[in-house]
Design brief:
- With about 350 residues, the protein is mostly helical.
- The chain has one domain.
- The protein contains 13 helices and two strands, in the order E-E-H-H-H-H-H-H-H-H-H-H-H-H-H.
- A two-stranded antiparallel ribbon has the order 1-2.
- Helix 2 packs across helix 12 and helix 6 crosses helix 8.
- The radius of gyration is 27 Å and the shape is globular.
- This is Drug/metabolite transporter.
């Protein structure tokens, strides 16, 4: 802190001083010079928008990016006819690596963290492999099943998380938590039986994507537990994305062929495909960025609640855009699944409170 300064002035030397003062000298208190942080905060008040408006804009961006990437993937892989989900996922990873590098090293949205050991490197590599499997399966499923059904299956992630946590770590939840998972399973069974566009392969790869996402969260909690190895989500993406791209490269070449050449040849007659791919890849990064921003400006619990709302909104928007048929029973099954996820979240919160 800068101590307050004083300024002694002779009486009547300044006409603005009180002429009725009786002392020969008068001491004027001059406020302390503000520190740099205070000055910056004063400057920022006028130049920044309201925190509530900023949070609302971030949440809106989160909804748009999460739903947007689903709709773009569905359009590219199913409607437009770009049937290369592995190559598309690899483009997503390259995009995330490039944008993450700029965001961390130049925009400095979070401090840069470095991989500290070979052991930590291989742990991140293992997470990258699981991440690849989950994302490729999710994108592949969109070729065969509607977005609404994809989101209904994706809502069962807590069920698989509980299973993997028990198998890998022997972690047992309370009876209330397990009971809350029953409507999650029942709802998806109901939705599957009444889905007009049901496709077995699409259903299985979507289950694979959902279970892969759950497995990644459990494994990440195990592998990166020590304070020395913990990485911020944006730094983790910076390292995982290029690893994932390298993992996917041989698979796309072996399974899908020389897609880069095919894409360039297609772009000569239809340049819109380049715009679609670049836009899709950018939105894929924005999903990760807005996940971080929502957690930063609200909480992880808010992100979880928004995830449930996003699933329902994405299903509704996709039905409006792609006009895929939906039965009353299918919609009921989806609603039951989402209700089960909400009950599960509440049961987990109460379980944590009682254990602490």
């Amino acid at each position: 802190m800068v101590e307050a300064q004083t300024w002694t002035t002779r009486r009547m030397s300044n006409p603005r001083l009180d002429s009725t003062a009786t002392a020969d000298h008068q001491v004027l208190d001059i406020p302390a010079t503000p520190t740099g942080d205070v000055r910056n905060s004063i400057y920022n008040v006028g130049s920044s928008i309201s925190p509530n408006i900023l949070t609302a804009l971030i949440i809106a961006s989160w909804f748009m990016s999460n739903i947007g990437v689903l709709l773009l993937n569905k359009y590219l892989l199913s409607i437009y006819g770009y049937r290369y989900p592995i190559f598309l996922t690899m483009i997503h990873m390259i995009s995330c690596a490039c944008y993450s590098y700029v965001a961390i090293n130049f925009l400095e949205i979070v401090p840069r963290q470095h991989i500290s050991s070979r052991k930590q490197f291989f742990k991140i590599l293992a997470l990258s492999a699981i991440f690849c499997f989950s994302v490729v399966c999710g994108n592949t499923s969109l070729r065969y099943i509607p977005v609404s059904f994809n989101q209904a299956i994706g809502a069962t992630t807590p069920f698989f998380t509980a299973i993997f946590a028990f198998i890998i770590t022997c972690k047992k939840e309370s009876a209330e938590v397990y009971f809350a998972l029953l409507p999650v399973v029942f709802g998806i069974v109901l939705a599957s039986n009444s889905e007009p566009l049901f496709n077995l392969f699409g259903f299985l790869v979507c289950i694979g994507s959902t279970s892969g996402r759950a497995l990644k969260s459990v494994v990440q909690g195990i592998l990166l537990t020590s304070e020395a190895e913990k990485l911020h989500s944006m730094n983790l993406l910076l390292y995982m994305a290029p690893m994932a791209a390298m993992i996917l490269l041989p698979f796309t070449l072996y399974i899908e062929g020389n897609v880069a050449r095919i894409t360039l040849e297609k772009a000569r007659t239809d340049s819109f495909v380049i715009f679609l791919l670049l836009g899709n890849a950018t939105v894929a990064y924005l999903v990760n960025l807005t996940n971080f921003l929502v957690t930063k400006h609200t909480s992880a619990l808010t992100l979880q609640v928004l995830g449930n709302a996003k699933a329902a909104m994405a299903a509704f928007v996709s039905v409006m855009i792609f006009r895929n048929p939906v039965t009353v029973m299918g919609a009921t099954g989806f609603a039951v699944t989402v209700m089960g996820v909400v009950l599960y979240s509440e049961a987990k919160k109460r379980s944590k409170v009682t254990t602490h």
